[in-house]
TrEMBL record:
PANTHER family: PARKINSON DISEASE PROTEIN 7 HOMOLOG, PROTEIN/NUCLEIC ACID DEGLYCASE DJ-1-RELATED. Pfam families: DJ-1_PfpI (PF01965). NCBIfam families: not_thiJ (TIGR01383). Gene3D superfamilies: 3.40.50.880. Keywords: Repeat. Residues 3-171 form the DJ-1/PfpI domain. GO terms for cellular component: cytoplasm. InterPro entries: Class_I_gatase-like, DJ-1, DJ-1/PfpI, Prot/Nucl_acid_deglycase. This is 4-methyl-5(B-hydroxyethyl)-thiazole monophosphate biosynthesis.
Amino acid sequence: MKKRILVPIAPGTEELEAVTIIDILVRADYDVIVASADFSGQLSVMGSRGIILTAQCKLVDVADEEFSAVVLPGGVKGAEIFRDSTLLVEILRQQKYDGRLVAAICASPAIVLEHHQLYPRAIMTAYPSFQSHIPQDRWRNRRVTFDVNHNLLTSQGPGSALEFAIEIIAQLSGKTFAKQVALPLVPLPQLHYEKLGEE
């Protein structure tokens, strides 16, 4: 059965992260649903760099559906809207309760996940300037961090978005398939792609 992925966007979402996540997961032939968390209900939102991003639907339209993963792009203002969306927070709580993957990058691990104490025991990373938001014993200064005990994947920022997206595929479909998706992209060899496929 095809993997279904929810990617929320909002005004202030980091465009490079959002587009990279969506693009790579589409390349994996996943069913990627881009949903607007904008409180006004607009499907088109302005990202953090002034680029317009357009969702396929409103978040409320898919709130009761099941997803293989819920993936939060960063961008401070976008993450703050995610944080303040009771609907999205409930979706994340249900995703965690069901043991399915949650992934967040940049500001979202700190502003959304840590703010609501959704994963109070999980290790995570985030954009480096948000390190103070996460207890030192749970912080990992790595570009991409996966907590196997909580099925939580986090990453640091726009420059790590490609690795982050490939790791989502590795967690959902295995390292061999993730490598098949990654290699045609001509990724930098030092970004640990050579380890993909080592089941």
